[in-house]
Amino acid sequence: MLPVSIQVRQALGKLVLPALLLLSVGVMIAGQVEKRATEKARMAVAGTLAPLWNMVSHARAGVADVSNGIRQARHLSEENSRLEAENATLRRWYDVAVSLARENDALKTELHWVPEPVPSFVTGRVVADSGGIYARAVLLVAGTQSGIQTGNVALAANGLAGRVTEVGPHAARVLLITDISSRLPVMLESSHAPAIMVGDNSETPRLLYYPQDTRPLEGERVVTGDQAGAFPAGIPVGTVHYTHPGTPVVQPFARLNQLTMLRVFDFRQAEIEPPGAPGHVPLTHPSHRPLALPFKTLLSPGQEG
Amino acid sequence: MPPMQWDPSSEPQDTLGQRLDNAARHLLPSFIALLAIIVLSAPLGLPGAAELLPPLMIGSVFFWSLWRPSGMPPLNVFLLGIFMDLIGFTPLGVSAFILLLVHGLASYTRFGLMRLNFLLVWCVFGLIGAAASVLQWALACVFRLHALDPAPAFFEALLCIGIYPLLSAVSSWFLHILDGKPAS
Questions:
Q1: pLDDT tens-digit profile of B145-182?
Q2: Out of 1.20.1250.20, 3.40.50.300, 3.10.50.30, 2.40.10.340, which CATH number does the structure's domain A119-269 have?
């Protein structure tokens, strides 16, 4: 302990709170200026805590399994008969699907169809719900070591969940489609009309910028569109629902508030390079966007700089 | 003969065990708050775990700053806030700023507040919680550069008010245990 008098110590004690308040304001400003460093710090903290969250999440899964087992044991016989009936229906659908797949193959061969590349994917466990009131995001235990990159697409069991925004060596943060900063190009499946799905931190993102002559229909399926080149077309997102007249929202297929596993797909959209065209501004990754304005292709050679 | 001088080393010194015990008593509230942040950000399937965390932190910082400031010094409040921001998706420093303000208000008014009965303290806390929620909403708007829906802030304020009696009861019981001298 430093040999200071009691008065000085009390005065210093009174200064601690204002100093810390100033420091937190400083941290706020520094966090806005040095976004890269902030992200690195966040991913470092998440990476160290990921094993702990993994443990909690495993324990929770175990408890859920036991309680589910006890609950299901009581309804085994009705469940069995229901499953048998469902199996019979599914067998019929299987036959239909096989014949349709064959027909599809035959038609593609007729048309000299160029096959699409098969996307690679990794599956990770969701270990933390790192959003809050003003954000919707989750943390996965899978990072650059598993081949995940920023911008990859995360799918839940039955629909789109979000996109990878930050990656550390062992953890990746996925921004969910319900977050307020999420803007996705989507397509209404029956009318093929483009729209933008805008998250607002609620369970149901809104649909905006659809053509005024083709309004979204209640119950219509919404799939991803490939307008900006960020997503492959046709990933199921959800169904249209009207909460009020004139405000269509999307009810996502993925149950975004109880995610346990996510598949992260690398569709290699960035590697598809369109042929050059006058006036075409190529889509670049935000981190290595050139500092100059991308208007060079629009200007005549003499006007540059 | 030189005049008698006060020598700090002649005070009765605590033994190592006593000092460790004291340190543990001072650190325990912050440690429990830290555990609450980690557990509530894990996907437990609890409804509204993400919404629950800020009111819980505001409530516990208020409670400990009011009744036992040595258990929740400003530095711990600051570190808890920064930790919350690092784990969550909030702009860095926002939670730290709000929690420090709550701590400052509670510790400046504590001698007045400690004489009031529980209902009045609850009312004061309701006002502070509402102000903190509004401030958080305002800061979120500033950092996103457009006006956000104020409904979550309203919900957070209500949660703050609603959670305080339960939090206060549990923390009071805990404070009672901490105050109880170890059986000797």
A1: 877 788 888 888 999 999 999 999 999 998 888 877 54
A2: 2.40.10.340
